[in-house]
């Protein structure tokens, strides 16, 4: 009876463990790992573009492309690591929730591994009891094996995730050095470039007078829109682009149009969280109407994509170009502030934060406002989440 009771106990433990343990979704881990690996390859490819940028005819275009490719890959990698981290948490929570059942299952499996089935099938009560034991064993063995396969697959998932995270940290550390150099070169290349068409002189007197008298961003933008000393915005059907404009920066929307912040303030624009030193680009061909510090907004860039429309970007640490420059879509407007970790620290910190589902270092915020004449519009109705197009060379 002891053998029969033991086998029955095994059956109860195994059946309970299988019923209590959720089926592993290895496909979720596989998909997240595949996406993260593809993103890491995208990062490596972007890193390899730096040498090409140094020999390009238009270094501004080439360096912008390299930095944007790096940031796009960084965002994709963050998403892949986040999903992989979520899956790992699910596995660990399942272990914690059913630890006792799983331990008894593993114990039963160990006993069976050490005891030949022929001995387990022998019963002191004779052939009839042995037959009953055999029937129970026939049902128990596949169940235990299925549970073993399930546990092994879950452990393999965690191993894949850990391996992926280690490789990603190394790639990020290597890429940070190159993208920092690309940003430095971009700032220099924008300053040196003199081929952009200009629509009016930099900082006309009217703008300076308006700057000294305006006490709000709204007042400044309204006054700026009323100035008529230029020859008009770039041609193009800006209105038809509604819903198709690329986001000006890689990041996460923290607050939507007129959504209240912690203090209850409702701003008529988007607040986007970005990585330190993220690149900001223009989503549409536009004329720079103003660049520089404004009130308490830090550096502000105001561009005119079409007559009567203004796009306002506030919060950058560094702005490029000059008032009156006409930019192509995807041209650099400036860089966000903040400080990235050292190369040897950035990778591991980013990976840990992303895997935990955090913002992965998105410590900077860009404010984006869209205006038509004297009214503000919801920018989210104009932007898509598609990657920002790379700048095309001016003719």
Could you please describe the fold and organization of this structure?
Residues 1-19 form the signal peptide. Residues 268-343 form the M23ase beta-sheet core domain. GO terms for molecular function: hydrolase activity. This is Murein hydrolase activator EnvC family protein. It is elongated and about 110 Å long. Residues 1-24 and 386-395 have low confidence and may be disordered. The chain is of the alpha+beta class and 395 residues long. 52% of the residues lie in helices and 16% in strands. The protein has helices spanning 2-20, 26-47, 50-54, 59-97, 99-114, 117-121, 127-192, 205-213, 217-226, 343-355, and strands spanning 245-246, 251-255, 270-274, 279-281, 286-293, 299-306, 309-319, 326-327, 332-336, 364-372, 375-377, 383-384. It folds into 2 domains: 2-192, no CATH class; 205-339 and 347-384, Glucose Permease (Domain IIA) (Distorted Sandwich). Strands 2, 3, 4, 5, 6, 7, 8, 9, 10 and 11 form a 10-stranded antiparallel sheet that branches. The longest helix is centred in the middle third of the chain and has 66 residues, at 127-192.
Keywords summarizing the entry:
two-stranded parallel ribbon; alpha+beta; 10-stranded antiparallel beta sheet; 2 domains; 12 strands; disordered C terminus; 395 residues; Glucose Permease (Domain IIA); disordered N terminus; 10 helices
Alpha plus pi helix count: 10
Query: What's the mean pLDDT score?
Result: 76
Computed over alpha carbons, the radius of gyration is 30 Å
Q: Outline, from the CA principal axes?
A: elongated
Number of domains: 2
- How does the helix and strand content classify structurally? alpha+beta
Protein name: Murein hydrolase activator EnvC family protein
InterPro entries: Cell_wall_metabolism_enzyme, Dup_hybrid_motif, M23ase_b-sheet_dom
Cofactor: Zn(2+)
GO molecular function: hydrolase activity
């Amino acid at each position: 009876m002891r053998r029969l009771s033991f086998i029955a106990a095994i059956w109860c433990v195994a059946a309970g463990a299988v019923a209590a343990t959720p089926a592993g979704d290895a496909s979720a881990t596989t998909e997240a790992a595949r996406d993260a690996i593809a993103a890491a390859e995208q990062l490596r490819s972007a890193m390899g573009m730096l040498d090409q940028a140094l020999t390009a005819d238009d270094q501004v275009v080439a360096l912008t492309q390299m930095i944007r490719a790096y940031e796009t890959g960084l965002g994709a990698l963050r998403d892949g690591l986040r999903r992989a981290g979520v899956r790992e948490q699910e596995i660990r929570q399942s272990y914690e929730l059913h630890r006792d059942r799983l331990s008894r299952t593993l114990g039963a499996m160990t006993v069976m591994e050490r005891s030949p089935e022929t001995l387990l099938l022998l019963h002191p009560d004779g052939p009839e009891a042995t037959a009953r034991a055999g029937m129970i064993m026939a049902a128990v063995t596949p169940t235990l094996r299925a549970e073993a396969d399930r546990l092994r697959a879950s452990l393999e998932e965690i191993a894949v995730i850990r391996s992926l995270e280690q490789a990603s940290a190394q790639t990020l550390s290597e890429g940070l050095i190159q993208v920092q150099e690309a940003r430095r070169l971009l700032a220099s290349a924008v300053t040196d470039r003199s081929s952009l068409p200009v629509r009016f002189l930099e900082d006309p007197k009217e703008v300076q007078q308006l700057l000294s008298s305006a006490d709000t961003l709204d007042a400044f933008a309204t006054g700026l829109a009323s100035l008529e000393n230029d020859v008009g915005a770039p041609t193009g059907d800006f209105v038809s682009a509604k819903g198709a404009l690329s986001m000006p920066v890689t990041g996460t929307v923290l607050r939507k149009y007129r959504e209240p912040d912690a203090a209850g303030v409702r701003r008529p624009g988007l607040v986007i969280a970005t990585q330190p030193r993220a690149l900001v680009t223009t989503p549409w061909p536009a004329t720079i109407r103003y660049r520089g510090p404004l009130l308490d907004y830090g550096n502000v860039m105001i561009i005119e994509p079409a007559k009567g429309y203004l796009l306002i970007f506030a919060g950058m640490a560094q702005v490029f170009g000059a008032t009156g420059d006409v930019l192509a879509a995807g041209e650099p407007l400036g860089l966000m502030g903040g400080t990235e970790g050292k190369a040897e620290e950035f990778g591991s910190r980013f990976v840990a934060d992303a895997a935990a589902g955090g913002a992965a270092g998105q410590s900077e915020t860009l404010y984006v406002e869209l205006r038509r004449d004297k009214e503000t519009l919801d920018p989210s109705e104009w932007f898509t989440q598609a990657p920002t197009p790379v700048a095309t060379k001016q003719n």
